[in-house]
Amino acid sequence: MKKIFALLLAVMMIMSLVACGGGKTTTSSTTTSKTSTTTSTTSTTSTTKTADKVIGIPGVLYFINLKDGEQPPFKGIRIDGNQHPLFLNGWDFSTEKVCFIFNLNEWMYISVDPNVGGDFEVYFVKHADDQAVYDKMSIATLQDKAVASVVLTDPHDPTWSWGDAYIFQEENEPGYYDAIFTKGSKLIARMVIKMYDEEELGSLSDAQCEELMEEEIAKFKALV
Question: What does pTM read for this prediction?
Answer without folding.
Answer: 0.77
